[in-house]
Amino acid sequence: MRITALAGGIGGARxxxxxxxxxxxxxxxxxxxxxxxIWIHGLRVCPDLDTVMYTLGGGISIERGWGREGETFxxxxxxxxxxVEPTWFGLGDKDIATHLVRTQSMQAGFPLSDxxxxxxxxxxxxxxxxxxxxxxxxxxxxxDDPSGALDDAGRPLQIAIHFQEWWIKYRAQIxxxxxxxxxxxxxxxxxxxxxxxxxxDIVLLPPSNPVVSIGTILQVPGVADALRSTTAxxxxxxxxxxxxxxxxxxxxxxxxxxxxxxxxxxAAHYGARLPRSASAGGNESTEIGGGFIDGxxxxxxxxxxxxxxxxxxxxxxAVPLLMSDLDATKAMVSEAxxxxxMP
Amino acid sequence: MRITALAGGIGGARxxxxxxxxxxxxxxxxxxxxxxxIWIHGLRVCPDLDTVMYTLGGGISIERGWGREGETFxxxxxxxxxxVEPTWFGLGDKDIATHLVRTQSMQAGFPLSDxxxxxxxxxxxxxxxxxxxxxxxxxxxxxDDPSGALDDAGRPLQIAIHFQEWWIKYRAQIxxxxxxxxxxxxxxxxxxxxxxxxxxDIVLLPPSNPVVSIGTILQVPGVADALRSTTAxxxxxxxxxxxxxxxxxxxxxxxxxxxxxxxxxxAAHYGARLPRSASAGGNESTEIGGGFIDGxxxxxxxxxxxxxxxxxxxxxxAVPLLMSDLDATKAMVSEAxxxxxMP
Lengths: 343, 343
Fold this sequence. Notes:
The structure is a homodimer. The first copy, chain A, is an alpha/beta fold. Chain A has helices at 10-22, 47-57, 74-81, 93-107, 112-123, 163-169, 193-198, 214-219, 223-229, 250-256, 263-270, 306-311, 326-339; strands at residues 2-7, 27-32, 38-40, 43-45, 128-131, 138-144, 158-162, 178-182, 202-205, 234-237, 240-241, 244-245, 295-299, 315-319. The longest helix of chain A has 15 residues, at 93-107. Chain A folds into 3 domains: 36-131, Helicase, Ruva Protein, domain 3 (Orthogonal Bundle), CATH 1.10.8.240; 138-182, no CATH class; 194-343, CofD-like domains (Rossmann fold, 3-Layer(aba) Sandwich). The A-B interface holds A 41-43, 72, 74-75, 78-79, 81-84, 93-94, 96-98, 100-101, 103-104, 107, 119, 122 and B 41-43, 72, 74-75, 78-79, 81-84, 93-94, 96-98, 100-101, 103-104, 107, 119, 122.
C-alpha cells in the first residue's frame, strides 16, 4: 500500500515512527514542511526535515525530540565568544555536519529534494522524504515590534520576523498577528509531491501544527488541490487534545488565524471533502483549508465533539491520541487506517 | 618602533611570540600568508592567519602547534559518516566557529582583511595581522598524478593539486615538480601591506617556509619591490639549521625550486639588498627573490657559512636558532634587532 503523509517536526516524526511500525510492508512517502528553514551562521538548516530524518533514522535526541542524541554545542559556544548573532538557535556540533553537507550542496546548485535524498542515504529513515518545495517559502510571523516602537499613528509598529525567531527566541510568547509564507506564490511543489498525493492509497495528516506545519505545506501551489482531487482518503489526527496542543504552541498559531484551539475547529479549518466532481472542472480553488478531509481522529477526552465533526461530513472516531510510546502510536495509526476503511 | 614581519604558520607564529615578548612596547604588523587558504566543506579556512591569531591570542594547541587547545572533532567525524570528501583535513569543532564567521562575512561581501581584523577583536593577538592579499592567490603544487596515469608521450601525467592536499594528505612525500600561485598576477596587496613595509623601522622574516610561506607573500605584486625600496633594514632568520628544516617540510619545497636546503642557499635565494638607488628609478623588477636582505641569522651549527653569506653582502651572525622556549625565541629576536643595529 502507498501511504503519503504531510509532516512537520517532532509530532509528525513520532507519528511516522508509528506508521512504520504499524505498516512495515507499505511504501511511505513523507512531504516535509520547509517553511521553518533558516540560514544560521551561513548554514542552511531544515529543522523539520532533519527531525523526521533523525527520528526515523535512529539519530534523534530522545529527550529533546529534536537534534542529535549525545549532541555537543562547542561550535555554538565559540560563535558566542565571537559575539555573532543569533545566539538563540540550538546549533549542535553533530547537527552542523548535516548543515554543512546541505549548504555546500545547495551552493553547488543541487535542489533541496536531491540533497535530502542524499542525506537520507546515510540515515535510511525507511520513508521517502521529500521537501514540500525546492523553492524559497519562508514562514514569517507578524508581531508588534518587541522594542515597543510605534507607527506614525501611535499604534504598535508591526514587523515580520522569521518563524524561528518567534518560536525559539520568543517561545511564541509575543502575540502573532499573522503568518506570511514569503515566496510561496512563486514556489512549485518539489518533484514527487503532487504524484505522492495523487497516487497514494491513503493520505495521513499527523498531529503536526495545523498552521505552521501542515498549513504551510497546504499553501504550496497545487498541494491543496491535489488533496481535494486525489481518490485516496485523507485522514487526519487532531493535534489538539482537550482544548490544548499535545505539545508545541499550536494554540498561539491557531489564535493568530482566528481558529479555536479545539479538535473540532481544526477539522473544520481543514474542511470536509467536497464532492470530487465539484472540484474536477479545472476551476479549482487556490484557497487553502477546506475541502479534503475524509476522516478525523480525536482524543477520547474529546468524544463529545465526534457528532459535531461527523455533522461536517467527516468520519470521526475518539481514540487515545497520546503518543506516549510506540505501541500507543501504532494503535493511533491503525485507527486512522481503519477509519478510512483500510485493511 | 614599528616592526613588520612576514609570516607563515607555526614557525612564524612562534617567532612572533618572541617578538612580542622581546619588544613589548613596539607596534608589530604581521603580513600573513594566504596561499594555503582553502575551501573545505564550504568553509573558508585560512590556516596561517589562524595559527598566528590563535598562537598570539592564547588559543593555540601547544602540542600540535595548529588548531585550538582542547579541540574536539565531532563535526569531522560526522562528515565522514556522510561519506563526504575530503576527510584528511583536520577541521576541529572550535575552529569551525572561526571558519563560519569568516565564511559568512565573506559571503556578505567583506574583504578578508576586514574579517581578520574582526576575528582578532576576540583574540587580541597584540599585533596588527593583515593577510597578504584580499584576492585569490592559491598555492597549487605540480605533481605526477598519484594514480600513476601517463600522458600521451608515456611520461607521468603532471597535475596541479591544492597545497593542502600535497602538504597534509600526501605529507609532502610525493615530489613537487613546481609551485603555482594561481591568481597572484591579478592579486593586489591587502590594504596596509605595502605601507607596513615602507613605513617600518625594521622588517623581520621569521623562520617560515621560504617557498610556500614567505615566498608566497613575496609573489604578491608590489611586496618584493617594497622590500627592495624600504629604508628599513630587512633581517631574516634561517629556517634551515644544519642542512634541514627545523620543522615542516621546507626541504621538499626548496628542492622543487632548485634551491639547496642550507642556510646559505636560502639567504642567497632571497638575495642581498641591492643599492637602493638602483631600484628607485621606477624601473623596478617584478622578479621575486633577490635584492632585499640586509641581515641573516644562522644557527650556531652553521657558523661555517657566515663568511660565505657575508661575502654575498649580507650581514650575518651565528646564534642559537632553536625556538625551544620563549626565552630562546626572545634571544633570537634580540639578535635580529642587534644585527640591524637596532637598540
